[in-house]
Sequence to fold (469 residues):
Amino acid sequence: MHTPIDTEYLRTQLAKRRDARLEPLRAHGLRPSAEPTITWVGDLQQGDGGKGAMTDRLAAQHQVVVRVQGGDNAGHTTVFRASDGVDTVLKNHLLPSGMRRPDVIGILANGVLINLERLDAELASFEAISPGIGGRLFVSGRAHLILPLHRSVDDRQEAAREGTGSEIGTTRRGIGPANVCKVNRIGLRVHDLADPTLIEKRIREAVEFFDLPKDEFERNVEWVLFHRQAALTREVDSARLIDDLVATNHSVLFEGAQGPLIDLEHGIYPYVTTSPTAVYSVGSGAGFPQQQIDHRIGVLKAYQTMVGNGAFVSEDLSELGQRLRAEGDEFGTTTGRQRRCGWLDLVQARWAIEVNRFTSVVITKLDVLDSFERIGVCVGYERDGELLVEFDAEHESLERCRPVFRYFDGWLEPTTSTSSFERLPLAAREFIAFIGEQLSVEIGAVTVGPRDTDILVRTGTSLDGLVAA
Ligand code: GDP
Ligand code: IMO
Ligand code: MG
Fold:
């Protein structure tokens, strides 16, 4: 029998489909917001600016947190006082930050690379802090997997480059090789896990492509079959689900990983990661148009760090760099490597704002500078006798640049217990005002410690009311 699809019928069917998609989230406490908003948190530097901590703070005002890109190369830290009064430190690599909060739903969208073993382990380790967290996590069927063979290839490549001067210094989490499979159309996705024949086909293709020993085939198939079930139970169409959430008045928070300096398209190639890291990743990695994001919040560490290789104009290889590392505890969350350190680079930060059009910037780790008598800020580059004020993300060119610093007097007093932004020491406020002027952007808040409460939101800015101070 022929059923005509009139507009009324179409609307009813689409509404039913939407309800069916939202139902599993409602079962985990999803409720609409009185003031729905859409937010993205990104970094202005290489990464490690405190996106995890910022996302966790913002999650209190959003119902859903979505990771859109990268994989477990990310390392995000959250510090908060648990219900027993004890300070708790959470380190997550794959789970969206903020999911420790019992009413926050997490989504890994299509652009995220997923290591299933890591995901299972992370969920298990968070269960004690946040009971039932596994039920609140949903995963895109289109997300690609990182297999053990991708990690072996990452290791093999980095080991082969050692001592040649061309090692990237990757996290060795298999990110690059997994993306190679993805773009070469031999990647395995969450959706494919339902089909054992396809699993074998894709793994065979990858083993051949990377010219790996034959036993890698069996090892990887076994690994996938062992881990696939939990992922399949979480599978969703994340692009549609995010549209549904927005259409039904939910506040959605997109959590960035890494930073623009290592963006595949815009970063210092080849010293980049292999994923998009700038705001456009919300479009590619979640299918959500970036123009509809209300708040693009950038974290800018009060000084500069880098882990891995690549040009770093304001890097300090002397005592100062070591002191910043010690005061800021600058050791990689993912690899434990020492982070390279130097004064804040405003030439680079201005470029990050061009790339991402941040609506507000949060200066993080201000307290790390509390004991410095003099604080430097890189305001320009000197290259072959020429003074430059525009950043050019080209390794060879940056290697020839020397930093031009402007110095500020330090405030030489602890800032962590400051009660409000306005009560920060005058010298600290001057330092912050200078950054805001040079970047032509709103400085909406500063953070003065790792805890969720260690944030000073500036009255009257776009973050006032969005972040509970
Ligand atoms: P992400 O990758 O951007 O999420 O940042 P990471 O978590 O890798 O690195 C930031 C580190 O600084 C973490 O150890 C945080 O706990 C810590 N942190 C964040 N904000 C502050 C702050 O304002 N002051 C201090 N002292 N530490 C902070
Ligand atoms: P979060 O989210 C800082 C760097 C690595 C290396 C380069 C390529 O915590 O800010 P990859 O393993 O991605 O192929 O390595 O990218 N890198 C990061 N640096 N923060 C991160 O994430 C990073 N993720 C990758 O050090 O230089
Ligand atoms: Mg990090």
Remarks:
- The chain has 13 helices and 19 strands.
- The first strand starts at residue 38 and ends at 43.
- Residues 43, 47-53, 75-77, 79, 333, 364-365, 367-368, 447-450, 454 surround guanosine-5'-diphosphate (ligand 1) (CB under 6 Å).
